[in-house]
Amino acid sequence: MPVDEDADELFALLDDEYARTILIATSVEPLSADALAERCDASEPTIYRRIDRLETFDLVESEQQLDPDGHHYKTYAARLERVTIELEDGNLSVAVDRTEDAADRFTRLYEELR
Q1: What is the CATH number of domain 5-81?
Q2: Which domain of life is it from (predicted)?
Q3: Which of 45, 57, 91, 97 has its CA 20 to 30 A from that of 6?
Q4: What is the pTM of this model?
């Protein structure tokens, strides 16, 4: 049985060297596209294309930053924790675990207390 289209796209994305470098770097600290371009030795348009694809799968999140001189820029942080691939009875399934932000974690804990 073939893997679904989303899983194929996810595999292709994770196979991309720039996407992996972005995920690794932003798992340590949030970084701007400029800083990521430097770390990846890539152009900013290349970095923005990879970030767009990573955001499509909710593997990175962005946050608006304000410079003291009044300029705005975004930083990106990895949300990916784990990708699990299971093969069972002729079926391949893919599960992606992401980090929870504080608000989501609080909501989940509150709902569990009820």
Answers
A1: 1.10.10.10
A2: Archaea
A3: 45
A4: 0.80
